[in-house]
Amino acid sequence: MPLRILHELPFLAICYDPRHHWLLAEWHGSISLARAREGGEAVLACVRTAGSSKLLNDNRLVTDMWLEKPDWQQISLFPHLYAAGLRYIAWVYSPNLYGRFSVDHALDLVTHPVARTFEDLDLAQQWLQHQ
Fold first, then answer.
1. This protein's superkingdom (predicted)?
2. DSSP of 42-88
């Protein structure tokens, strides 16, 4: 079954994967605080619409992102995602070192939903399938 596009932004495509029953968020380019906030709100809206409890958050095409803990606290997205029904996030790292640090800063603040980082898309998909 093909992916169903739910929302598109210049730096983000959010799709529903009916075969796996999860959302796929494919980020690309340079991600600023404003873009992270806008994209996060779009992901939240899609979680609410699709009713999916799983998110495959793909950052492999992110070229630049530097968000520190206070930035992520300002966005305050994860409690809202959890309240909307999201339970698991498989987060595939960007090859950009600062992008990786930014993801680690974000996930330091997360207790729910359960989030795990991956170097490899296939491993992320396998983990998410077993949740």
1. Bacteria
2. HHHHHHHHH--SEEEEEEEEEEEE---HHHHHHH--HHHHHHTT--E
